[in-house]
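Figure 3 (text version): structure tokens given as input.
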């Protein structure tokens, strides 16, 4: 699996569109695809993965695993991973390139913390600005050596490239400073290699794909959602996962842009089929319902403990303003750029808070959202942990050039705003390929007025 080739400076030309109509499916869930590849490598035997995400981030995970000696064959959305177990991983001949993927880098920190060799993790310029101190601190407490670059603007922020010298780990009882699935997953992977129990306590319930899939593959892990604790106890465990077929549902975070488009483009009627419905990820459904969107959800199946099904959205007039905060903000954290578009077109003032983690994503997403909404003529006020939007009530936004700061979700949000604009909107298409390479083709299939130039 290798990243899609990028044509320099290509743009999506987006124009005001008629109603979007049709049934579609979205690429495999990016978060689950990362885990399917990585956990498949830790099995003993062949793991067949169906529905694998095709974006550049998942390609980075596959490439890093190959460099560690894991045979992986990918054909479209089908992958075969020849698992080698923890003990079968080998020191890479060169630095492991995580591309733009923070998930790859943070999860590999946990994976490599317990391996008896030296590893270097690097990323693109965007990833190289993302803080890694939160994952390094607990792994150091477990016994790993992790070194990186210090951020000149702070005293304690650690930046890539990271050098990890792994080895024998001890279990710890650790309260996470923030609810983060990436940080939690890194500690789970390290905990599976430790000599005693590791207990991880969360301030809020982050997405639980790691726990579900690892239990499916036979890992000694248990969760207590009410106490917000995860316990990893490798005592007596042989250190290998049980190979089994893995099926990846559609990515709800990608579907979010289509759901919002259907909710704001007059006359639209869109169904997204076979999309993941994990309750730690469905905050966007709750937010759109609170905004009076006509949205129906039907679970049709389950794979690896992950529910999936259909989400159907019909346009029902202008949306109502809403408030997003607390656990609801956490359950919709990756969908905030899409929801910002919904708020921009709603009637009244929407307030979104408790979103500080967006400051350290692929971009400073709060700053980018505020900038792009203002470019489109929407009144918005920025705060340290979020923003407030006075919606247009359906009045068309302005077009123009979207500055996505190399962030795929900001680019896609700009494209959805462009579907409502009287003027043309230009969106950097190469940024979208990180997670949703078929974004433009899928929108065109639903009737959107856009082209590539």
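Below: residues designed for each position.
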């Amino acid at each position: 699996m290798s990243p899609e080739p990028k044509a320099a400076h290509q743009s999506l030309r987006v124009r005001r569109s008629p109603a979007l109509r049709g049934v579609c499916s979205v690429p495999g869930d990016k978060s689950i695809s990362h885990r399917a590849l990585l956990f498949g490598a830790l099995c003993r035997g062949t793991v067949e993965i169906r529905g694998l995400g095709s974006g550049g981030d998942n390609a980075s995970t596959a490439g890093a695993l190959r460099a560690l000696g894991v045979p992986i064959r990918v054909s479209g959305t089908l992958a075969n991973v020849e698992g080698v177990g923890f003990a079968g991983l080998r020191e890479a001949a060169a630095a492991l390139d995580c591309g733009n993927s923070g998930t790859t880098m943070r999860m590999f920190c946990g994976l490599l913390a317990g391996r008896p060799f030296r590893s270097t993790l690097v990323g693109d310029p965007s990833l190289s600005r993302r803080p890694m101190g939160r994952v390094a601190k607990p792994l150091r407490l477990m016994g790993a050596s992790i070194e990186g670059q210090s951020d000149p603007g702070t005293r304690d922020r650690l930046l890539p490239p990271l050098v990890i010298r792994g080895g024998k780990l001890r279990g710890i009882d650790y309260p996470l400073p923030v609810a983060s699935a990436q940080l939690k997953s890194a500690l789970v992977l390290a905990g599976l290699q430790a000599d005693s129990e590791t207990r991880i306590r969360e301030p809020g319930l982050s997405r639980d794909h790691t726990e579900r899939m690892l239990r499916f593959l036979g890992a000694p892990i248990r969760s207590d959602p009410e106490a917000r604790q995860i316990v990893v106890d490798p005592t007596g465990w042989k250190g290998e996962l049980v190979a089994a077929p893995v099926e990846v549902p559609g990515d709800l975070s990608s579907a979010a842009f289509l759901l919002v488009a259907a909710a704001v483009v007059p006359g639209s009627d869109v169904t997204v089929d076979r999309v993941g419905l994990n309750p730690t990820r469905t905050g966007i459904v709750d937010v759109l319902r609170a905004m009076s969107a006509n949205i129906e959800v039907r679970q049709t199946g389950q794979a690896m403990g992950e529910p999936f099904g259909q989400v159907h959205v019909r346009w029902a007039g202008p949306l109502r303003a809403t408030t997003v905060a607390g656990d609801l903000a956490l359950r919709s954290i990756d969908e905030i750029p899409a929801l910002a578009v919904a708020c921009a077109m709603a009637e009244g003032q929407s307030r979104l808070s408790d979103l500080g983690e967006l400051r350290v994503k692929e971009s400073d997403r709060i700053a980018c959202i505020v900038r792009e909404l203002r470019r489109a003529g929407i009144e918005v006020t920025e705060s340290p942990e979020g923003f407030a939007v006075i919606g247009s009530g359906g009045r068309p936004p302005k077009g123009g050039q979207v500055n996505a700061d190399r962030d795929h979700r900001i680019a896609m949000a700009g494209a959805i705003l462009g579907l409502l604009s009287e003027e043309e909107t230009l969106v950097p298409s190469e940024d979208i390929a990180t997670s949703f390479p078929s974004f433009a083709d899928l929108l065109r299939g639903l009737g959107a007025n856009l082209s590539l130039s």
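The longest strand covers residues 294-303.
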